[in-house]
Structures are given as C-alpha cells and as structure tokens.
Amino acid sequence: MQLTQSKTIRYYRIGVRWASLLTLIIFIGHYFLPAKTLEVKAPLFVAKLYGFVDREKGTSAYWVNEEENHWICHYKSTHAYGCGWRTSPDLEPVGSGVDLTSYDFMEIKLQYTGPASRIRAYLRNFNPAYSDPNDLSTTQPMETTFATAEANQPVLLKLSDFALAHWWLMERKHRRHWSEPEKNNITSIGLDFVEQGKHEVIVERITLIGKWIYTETLILIILSLWMTLFLIEGGIRFYGLYRAGQRDRTAIQALLERQRALEEQNKHLEALADTDPLTGVYNRAGLRSRVDSEKIRFGTLSGLGVLVLDLDHFKNLNDRYGHDMGDKVLKAFTSLLAMNLRTEDIFARMGGEEFMVVCRRQPLEGLRTFAEKLRSLATQCTFNGDDDLHISVSIGVAVVGEDEDFADAVRRADQALLRAKQNGRNRVEFTAPL
C-alpha cells in the first residue's frame, strides 16, 4: 500500500513538471499566433451608396466602377447633407449583423482624390431595444475620423476609438444605459464626407483584425485548469485522509455525543439545583441567580418590588388534613399565582409555606394593586370540593431603594409581613421606601 502510494506521488510530480512546461509553451506561443482577420467584402457584405437626391440631377453619390468599389461623392453647397458608402452583411432576417467584439482594429486601404481634409468611418449596431428593422437611422452609430493624408497607405483604426454619435442620442432621446457603444451586432460599416466638394474614392480593402485569444483570457483559462488540477489533487488527498481517519472520526463523534449528554445532564442538574422539587418554581438559589442576572442586565436593582408571601395557619392545615393535602395546597397555590404573574416576574419558594415575588419597576400604587390581586387570588383556591378548606395569604412588600442591598430590601419586606401577621393576617403591609 505504501509503495503504491509512493509511486502515485512520483507520477503525479512528473505530470506536474510536464504540465508546467506545456503551460509555459502555450503562454509564450500565443504571442506568436497569426492575427484573427475578417475581410469586409462580397459575397458576405454588400456595398451601397447614399447621398442627397436631386430630382433633376440625380443623387450626389454614384458608381464609377461598382465591382472595384470605385465611387464619387459630389457634395454641393445646395445639398442638405453629404454622401457616402456603406457595406452591410447579406444576412436574414433584417437586423442580423456580425459580432466585432473579438476584434481590436479596422484596417482601411483606399485611394482618395478630392478637397476633404478628413474622412469619417462609422459602424452601426442593431439592438431590438432601440432599433427598428424598417428604419436604419435607429441603429446605434459609432464614428471616428482620419486624415485624408493618411489614405496613401493602409489606415489602422482602433475599434475602441469609435465613439457613439451624440446627435443620435439627442434626436432619439434614448436612455443613458444605451449611451455605451455596442459592437456585438454590426449591420453596416461605412465611409462618408461632411466637407463639400467632389470626392473620388476607391475602397480597396477593409479588414477587421483581432486576436484568437487574449492574454487575460488565456491566463484565466490556465489558472482555471491549474485550480482544477489542485482541486483534484486535494480531493484525492482528502479522500485518503478520510479513509485513514475514519476510526478517529468515529471516536470523536462518540466523545462529542458523550459531551453533549454531560452538558444536558449538567443543565438538568442546574435546573434541579435552582428549582423547588414540589412546586416547580425557583428555590432560594434560583431566586438569587435571577436577581444577580437582573443586576448585571440593568446595572441596578433599584425600584424592584419585593413581595414576601406566607400562607396563613398552614401548620393547622397540615395537622388537620395531613401533609399530602398540605402539598396539594402548596402546588395549587403556586400554579394559581404563576398563571397570574408576568413573564419578567421572579417567583420562588423560600421554604415551607413562604414564597417571594420580585416584580418589575412600577409606581407604588401599581405595586399595591398587584399585591392585593395576589392576596385575593389565594382566597379563591378550593380543594377537593371542601368548602371548609380555604387558605389566605399575608404579604409584606418593600421596594429596593437606591444603592440598597437586595438582602436589606428582603429584611424590610419580612418586617412588613410580620406586621401583616400581627394585624390579623390575610392582608398586605408595606414598608416605607428608602
């Protein structure tokens, strides 16, 4: 097994070396590839002339020799516009053109005689979003110019220099997102004149020149291939590690399950430690934990209401009806109060028949009403249909003062509870706020 793995690694390294050499050869070699060209000529392209039409003298543009693209544009001062030559792809349906996005230059070879100082070259792109097949003027025009002095030799124009004609945007009132030149569906390529005079032109050749593949594209392809190779290698290595570490993962999973079980057990034990087993509400430890959380959350306990509740004559109830009935009374009383407390109120059994409620900050009268409500609820408890079995509760209330320790507020609430007992029970007594 080890020998086979070693041979695989060795073959892989040899393959990487050859792949690196091949990558280098391809990258350097693409600079020496011949140019990608497209000859603008018949039969793919059909040439036409256009110009100002005079009813008596005819059009301002006419052929000298159509086969040789030899034509004359006689632009007179009486003409409303100039004249020119254009060639279009002979494709169906109307609006079908050629994609020039992969070309960078247009080489124009022509002979010119006349008074013009510059010749305008243009492209027109068809896009159904803004073009009408029955109206060529709606195609997007892009143009540039070159000096007639350059026409003695081939003129090389960058396609990126062809700018969108501003007049087209103004006349057609097109949206801004149509103001970028488009060259993906060129329906005509042309030459024309904006200067008056008699212009004689022979269009010998128009050639579009580009690259078969751009350096950026090649780099992206090479990077993609190498990334794929690395991913494949990584996948193979990962699979080997997966096979080798399967037992370890199983052991780790078992440990995680055990850890989760321990965490659940710890949470359960914490809940048991903070909960009174008989009534299901907080015990002293749970109350202390919640109060500490409130202090951390708000920074102070000032303004919290502290209610200490004690069931009246509970010992007599136990002696008369037994401890089982006493437990039922405690659970029924706890359930009734819990249903009438708010979510943020803290309810705890302090021991025996004594309970405590810590409630939210509120005006003193609101706290008094709340305490009276709890006292009244206790009197409404009935047990086993025994009308003679009634309970009542005495309540002592205090409000945690500014910078007062919670234990001090509890002591004051206990003192208020003692007064409630001394004054006849089944009542609410307040201790003055600090």
The CATH architecture classification of the largest domain is Sandwich
SSE-based structural type: alpha+beta
Low-pLDDT residue spans: none
Strand content: 25-35%
Using the alpha-carbon principal axes, give the shape: elongated
Number of helices: 9
Total individual domains: 3
What's the CATH topology label of the largest domain? Jelly Rolls
Strand segment count: 19
Detailed description of the structure:
The chain is 38% helix and 26% strand. It is an alpha+beta fold and 434 residues long. The model has no long low-confidence stretch (mean pLDDT 87). The chain folds into three domains: 2-33 and 216-244; 37-212, Sandwich (Jelly Rolls); 275-430, Reverse transcriptase/Diguanylate cyclase domain (Alpha-Beta Plaits, 2-Layer Sandwich). The protein has helices at 2-29, 166-172, 215-244, 246-274, 284-298, 314-321, 323-339, 364-379, 406-422, and strands at 36-39, 45-50, 53-54, 58-59, 61-65, 70-75, 84-89, 103-113, 118-125, 140-147, 155-158, 163-164, 186-192, 197-210, 305-311, 346-351, 354-359, 393-399, 428-430.
Layout of SSEs?
Blueprint: H1 2-29, E1 36-39, E2 45-50, E3 53-54, E4 58-59, E5 61-65, E6 70-75, E7 84-89, E8 103-113, E9 118-125, E10 140-147, E11 155-158, E12 163-164, H2 166-172, E13 186-192, E14 197-210, H3 215-244, H4 246-274, H5 284-298, E15 305-311, H6 314-321, H7 323-339, E16 346-351, E17 354-359, H8 364-379, E18 393-399, H9 406-422, E19 428-430
Parallel strand pairs: 18-19
Antiparallel strand pairs: 1-14, 2-7, 3-4, 5-6, 6-14, 7-13, 8-11, 8-14, 9-10, 9-13, 10-12, 15-17, 15-18, 16-17
